[in-house]
Write a structure and sequence with these properties.
single chain, alpha/beta, TIM Barrel, eight-stranded parallel β-barrel, two-stranded antiparallel ribbon, 33% helix
Length: 278
C-alpha cells in the first residue's frame, strides 16, 4: 500500500521528517464562545512551541455510555463553529463522522475526517470518507490488534485515500480498563501511515463512573510521553478550561492551563527520540 508520508493537511505537514504534530481541542462542542476560546488558547501555545496543529472537536458524541448523556449541538451548529475556528485562526479542523452520509458535508469544512474507534471496521464509512478526497484519521478499535489496521488502510487505499493517519488509543483489558501496547506505534508505522497517539482516551475507564466514562487524568503525561518515545508522529489531547465541568470525557481531559507545560515536555521527548535515530 503506497501511502503519502508525510501528509499535507491544509498548510501543515505531518509525519516523516516533520516536527511533532498536535491534534487538540475539547471532546464535544458546547458553545461557539467556548469552542473559540479553547481554539485560540491552543493556537497560541502551539505557535509559541512551533508545533503544527489541528483543532479537533465533536458536534455529536454518538457513542455515549448512556442515552441520557449530552451528545452535542448537532451538525449544523458544529460545522458552523468549526468553520469559524478554521477561518479565524487559519488552522485545519477535524471532527468525527459516524455515518456514511455525514462524510461529504463534513469534508466541506474539515481538512481531516476522523473515524471513531468503535467504527474502525465499518467498510462503507471508510469508503465514504476516502471518497471525499480529504485526509482520514482512523482510531484503532479498542478490540483490534495493531496488525489488523492493515485492513483499514487497504479499504481506504482502495477508495483512493493516500493520506492516512492511524491512532493508538488503548485496548480493552477486562472490564472498565484500557491498556496501551506501545509496540502498536511502530507496528502501525510499518504500514506507511502517519501514526497518532491519543493520550487522553488512552486513560479512559469505560463506564467506570456509572452512566459515564471515568478516567485517570493524572496519567495523561505519562502515557503521552511513552507514546512519543515509541515513535508517534502526532499527539492527540483533549483539553478544556475546567474538565470537571465538561459534559463529556472530563475525567481524562487535560486542563487547558496545563497544556503548554505538557506539550513543551513532549516536544523535548520527541527531539531526544529523533536525535537518537540520527
Amino acid at each position: 500500500m503506497n501511502l503519502d508520508n508525510p501528509i499535507a493537511i491544509g498548510e501543515r505537514r505531518l509525519g516523516a521528517g516533520q516536527p511533532l504534530g498536535v491534534i487538540a481541542g475539547p471532546c464535544v462542542m458546547e458553545s461557539q464562545e467556548l469552542t473559540l476560546h479553547i481554539a485560540r488558547t491552543v493556537d497560541q501555545v502551539c505557535r509559541e512551541l512551533e508545533l503544527p496543529w489541528i483543532f479537533k472537536a465533536s458536534f455529536d458524541k454518538a457513542n455515549r455510555t448512556s442515552g441520557d448523556s449530552y451528545r452535542g449541538e448537532g451538525m449544523a451548529n458544529g460545522l458552523a463553529w468549526l468553520r469559524t475556528v478554521r477561518d479565524e485562526l487559519g488552522v485545519p479542523v477535524t471532527t468525527d463522522i459516524h455515518e456514511s452520509w455525514q462524510a461529504q458535508p463534513v469534508a466541506e469544512v474539515c481538512e481531516l475526517l476522523q473515524i471513531p474507534a468503535f467504527l474502525a471496521r465499518q467498510t462503507d464509512l471508510l469508503a465514504a470518507a476516502a471518497a471525499t478526497g480529504r485526509a482520514v484519521n482512523v482510531k484503532k478499535g479498542q478490540f483490534m490488534a495493531p496488525r489488523d489496521m492493515r485492513h483499514v488502510v487497504a479499504k481506504l487505499a482502495a477508495n483512493g485515500c493516500r493520506r492516512v493517519m492511524l491512532t493508538e488509543r488503548g485496548t480493552f483489558f477486562g472490564y472498565g480498563r484500557l491498556v496501551n501496547d506501545m509496540c502498536a506505534v511502530p507496528e502501525m508505522k510499518s504500514l506507511g501511515a502517519v501514526v497518532v497517539f491519543d493520550a487522553t482516551h488512552s486513560v479512559q475507564e469505560p463506564s467506570a463512573a456509572g452512566q459515564t466514562t471515568g478516567g485517570q487524568r493524572a496519567m495523561v503525561p505519562t502515557v503521552a510521553a511513552a507514546g512519543v518515545a515509541a515513535g508517534a508522529d502526532v499527539i492527540f489531547l483533549e483539553t478544556h478550561p475546567d474538565p470537571d465541568r465538561s459534559p463529556s470525557d472530563g475525567p481524562n481531559m487535560v486542563p487547558l492551563a496545563q497544556l503548554r507545560a505538557l506539550l513543551g515536555k513532549l516536544k523535548r521527548v520527541f527531539a531526544a527520540v529523533r536525535e537518537s535515530h540520527e
